[in-house]
Amino acid sequence: MTGLPSHLRETVDAYDAIAVRYAELTRDALGPFPLDRAVLAAFAELAGGAGAGPVAELGCGPGHMTAHLRDLGLDAFGVDLSPVMISLARRAHPRLRFEVGAIDALDLADGVLGGVLSWYSLIHALPSEVPAYLAEFRRVLVPGCPLLLGFFEAEGGPVTAFDHKVTTAYRWPVDDLAALAGAAGFDEVGRMLREPGENERFRRGHLLMLAR
Q1: Mean pLDDT over all residues of the chain?
Q2: What pLDDT, on the 0 to 100 scale, is given for residue 174?
Q3: Which of 12, 69, 103, 134 could form a Cys-Cys staple with 76, CB 3.0–4.6 A?
Q4: Neighbour-count burial of 42, counting CB atoms closer than 10 A to its CB (0-12 exposed, 13-18 middle, 19+ buried)
Q5: Residues 151-171 as b or e (16 or more Cβ within 10 Å = b)
Q6: 85 SS3 class
Q7: CA–CA distance from 128 to each of 67, 115, 132 (Å)?
Q8: pTM of the full predicted structure?
């Protein structure tokens, strides 16, 4: 894609370069983490119960989480800015729909989605840009439908940049991210914090919300 800001171009190039290895490493990403599976199941139950439209994973990478949503009974599709990731997703999951696109400027009408999953897809966004991403998520959601955010939690500190293995990423205080989501038009349903597992450095945060 042309015309991307420099930090997004760098992020896309970095993920394109490691896409095959990344897909291998994330193939069973949920296996060791029952709490992650539980919060995804809660999201799927809310989205399925609303029955208001398809569910989008925004920042879908190689598609393993989109496929998990499908396995939970949802009509799911994925969007990612990395063309190589989308190519891998299509190859691995040929019956699912995947599109190259910017998740802060979606090619979707207002209020057409029955759910949005953002599973660690905001971690590379500049903190100043996160409100715009959340506003876009709210724009495309039907009122009453869920958004689930997965992110690295700051463990009592402020928003903090760190040396993610791919490119610079940010850890967020859960209360700060919840406040930004509230300002964007979401009501919190619940949150789940998980301590780092083996080979993980940081606490994981999850916010489950409904669009107002």
Answers
A1: 93
A2: 98
A3: 69
A4: middle
A5: bbbbeeeeeeeeebeebebbb
A6: helix
A7: 31, 24, 8
A8: 0.93
